[in-house]
Specification:
Blueprint lengths: L1 H52 L10
């Protein structure tokens, strides 16, 4: 019986650790997503700014 209780306790500890890790990773992913959204927005604004500064310039081949 002692062995089963010990194994159960170890599983509970492992589960708790995994839940904490998942929560931390979720926070990191959320922060990264928000930062990517902001960078995309800034990139679009810069692109528009460049177009307004030189509207007669032909677009680059990668666009």
């Amino acid at each position: 019986m002692h062995n089963i209780e010990q194994r159960l306790t170890e599983l509970e500890v492992r589960s708790t650790f995994q839940e904490e890790t998942i929560s931390q990773l979720d926070q990191v992913v959320t922060q990264c997503h928000l930062q990517i959204q902001q960078l995309v927005k800034e990139n679009r604004q810069m692109h528009q700014m460049l177009r307004s500064l030189a509207p007669e310039t032909a677009e680059s081949p990668d666009e």
